């Protein structure tokens, strides 16, 4: 499996956010995006997930069987800043919705709702409305969404925001487990996640980008 980007550039509104971003990731790899606020980490993740069009360049995905006709977004879980859960539905209902809606993609099977809640240390509270949970518990459940439906690529924007130290470690272990199972991870973070096989890509934002870059 390969996920690669060649000379990506992206714009938000009128502003060019970054140019000439390239990377090549293979089975088990992680790319950790670092850089100051506003340097373009979320923008790059959204481009890779297919949620934002690149201004220039391309992202390519080749799966384990050599198929290259699927867009990277179709093979990805995207965990953004928001948790993408309905406050008034229970934790179990939210996760069951995502399990049914996303389904498993080729190459793996998702956990049951209870197994996924257990994996993030919250097996006992799946009957509660999502809105009753603390911020850290909500983030853990948002992460459990990644476990109920299999996707080979995980795209994570500040996955450990709002988490305590124990949950930090738990999620880092789940991310490492995904890598060991052959998955690929892209994560933007301000805190070290302690991942193995990880390459750091320091985003610098638009500063210093001159005229004439479009050649
Ligand atoms: N919809 C938008 N329209 C215009 N500019 C935007 C839009 N969304 C983001 N930006 C700008 O794009 C730049 C990059 O933002 P981005 O969210 O990618 O940064 P980041 O590195 O993820 O920051 P943080 O560490 O704060 O999460 C910022 O200057 C931001 O103001």
From TrEMBL:
<keyword id="KW-0067">ATP-binding</keyword>
<keyword id="KW-0547">Nucleotide-binding</keyword>
<dbReference type="Pfam" id="PF00005">
    <property type="entry name" value="ABC_tran"/>
</dbReference>
<comment type="similarity">
    <text>Belongs to the ABC transporter superfamily.</text>
</comment>
<keyword id="KW-0813">Transport</keyword>
<dbReference type="InterPro" id="IPR027417">
    <property type="entry name" value="P-loop_NTPase"/>
</dbReference>
<dbReference type="InterPro" id="IPR005895">
    <property type="entry name" value="ABC_transptr_haem_export_CcmA"/>
</dbReference>
<keyword id="KW-1278">Translocase</keyword>
<dbReference type="InterPro" id="IPR017871">
    <property type="entry name" value="ABC_transporter-like_CS"/>
</dbReference>
<dbReference type="GO" id="GO:0005524">
    <property type="term" value="F:ATP binding"/>
</dbReference>
<dbReference type="GO" id="GO:0022857">
    <property type="term" value="F:transmembrane transporter activity"/>
</dbReference>
<keyword id="KW-0472">Membrane</keyword>
<feature type="domain" description="ABC transporter">
    <location>
        <begin position="3"/>
        <end position="211"/>
    </location>
</feature>
<keyword id="KW-0201">Cytochrome c-type biogenesis</keyword>
<dbReference type="GO" id="GO:0016887">
    <property type="term" value="F:ATP hydrolysis activity"/>
</dbReference>
<dbReference type="GO" id="GO:0017004">
    <property type="term" value="P:cytochrome complex assembly"/>
</dbReference>
<dbReference type="InterPro" id="IPR003439">
    <property type="entry name" value="ABC_transporter-like_ATP-bd"/>
</dbReference>
<dbReference type="InterPro" id="IPR003593">
    <property type="entry name" value="AAA+_ATPase"/>
</dbReference>
<protein>
    <submittedName>
        <fullName>Heme ABC exporter ATP-binding protein CcmA</fullName>
    </submittedName>
</protein>
């Amino acid at each position: 499996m390969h996920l690669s980007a060649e000379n990506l550039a992206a714009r938000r509104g009128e502003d060019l956010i970054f140019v000439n971003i390239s990377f090549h990731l293979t089975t088990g790899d992680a790319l950790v995006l670092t850089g100051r606020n506003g340097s373009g980490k979320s923008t790059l993740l959204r481009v890779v997930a297919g949620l934002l069009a690149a201004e220039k360049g391309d992202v390519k995905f080749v799966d384990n069987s050599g198929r290259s006709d699927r867009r990277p977004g179709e093979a990805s879980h995207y965990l953004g800043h928001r948790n993408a859960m309905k406050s008034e539905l229970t934790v179990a209902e939210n996760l069951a919705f995502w399990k049914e809606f996303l389904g498993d993609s080729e190459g793996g099977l998702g956990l049951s709702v209870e197994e996924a809640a257990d994996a993030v240390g919250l097996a006992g509270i799946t009957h509660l409305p999502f809105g009753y949970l603390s911020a850290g518990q909500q983030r853990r459940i948002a992460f459990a969404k990644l476990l109920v439906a299999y996707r080979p690529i995980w795209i994570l924007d500040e996955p450990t925001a709002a988490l305590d130290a124990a949950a930090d470690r738990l999620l880092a272990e789940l991310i490492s487990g995904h890598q060991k199972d052959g998955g690929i991870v892209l994560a933007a973070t301000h805190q070290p996640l302690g991942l193995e096989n990880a390459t750091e890509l320091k985003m610098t934002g638009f500063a210093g980008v001159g005229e004439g870059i479009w050649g």
